[in-house]
Amino acid sequence: MILLIHGAGGSSNYFNYISLWLDQELQAIDYEVGDDHDAIFSKIQRPDEVTYIVGHSYGGLLGAEWLSKDTRNVKGLLTIATPWQGSPTARILNWFLSDDVWKDMKPGSELLRKINAINLSIPVKNIVAVPDRGNGLAGGGRSQNDGTIPVASARAIPPGFSKSKTIELPYGHSEIMQTFDLVEQIRMFVDDPLKDLYPPLRLEEVNRGF
After folding, report:
1. Would you kindly state where each structural domain of the chain is located, as residue ranges?
2. 5 forms bridges with which residues in the sheet?
């Protein structure tokens, strides 16, 4: 079973397109920003049957946090446009808005420190959205961004993820969820996560090593 976790301010509807193309049993949970994380995790039905987790944005952080408690039978985590190191924009918005997401997404926040201290030995595939455009607000000083978070934050996965691979796709933060390129990346990962992360060398590559 693949567990789908949406991002902050979104809903399970974000996975509607992807769900059309995946053959595995799927389970999506809904939550509101500010919900207690243990309460969010309690919504996961038949947790021992979850074999893969796919998390978009903030949902990737939640997926990693849940796995830090017990990987159970999960074979891999795939994250999409996840802000591992937060966003400078969140620090600014937190001055004016009280939403918990801005507190969590401030660089160096308690949540991000917790996430970045996780040691995870299962395969992690980190999908980064890298469009040819962004916006000034998300850039927080015109840094490269996907329209919502800095690209550098999405690339900077926690150092304790010992088996990981980052793939970049040319789409925006939300746009990426409606693409067949993403579907193909998910399919390759759930088919064989270790082979996807570490594809066997072609003969000519082996020969170059000798």
Report:
1. 2-208
2. 29, 55
In whole angstroms, give the CA distance from residue 178 to residue 182. Answer: 8
Distance, in Å, from the CA atom of 91 to the CA atom of 108, rounded to the nearest integer, reads 10
Residue 86: left if φ>0, alpha if ψ -120 to 50, beta else—which one?
A: left
The model's pLDDT over 112-131, given as tens digits with 9 standing for 90+, comes to: 999 999 999 999 999 999 99
* Phi and psi torsions of 126, nearest 5°: -110, 110
Nearest by Cα to 44 from 57, 27, 67, 61: 27
CATH of domain 2-208: 3.40.50.1820
pTM, entire model = 0.89
As a whole number of Å, the CA-based R_g of the chain is 17
8 Å CB contact between 179 and 171: yes
Burial class (CB in 10 A: 0-12, 13-18, 19+), 62: buried
Cβ neighbors of 164 (< 8 A, separation 6 or more) are: 123, 124, 125, 126, 157, 197
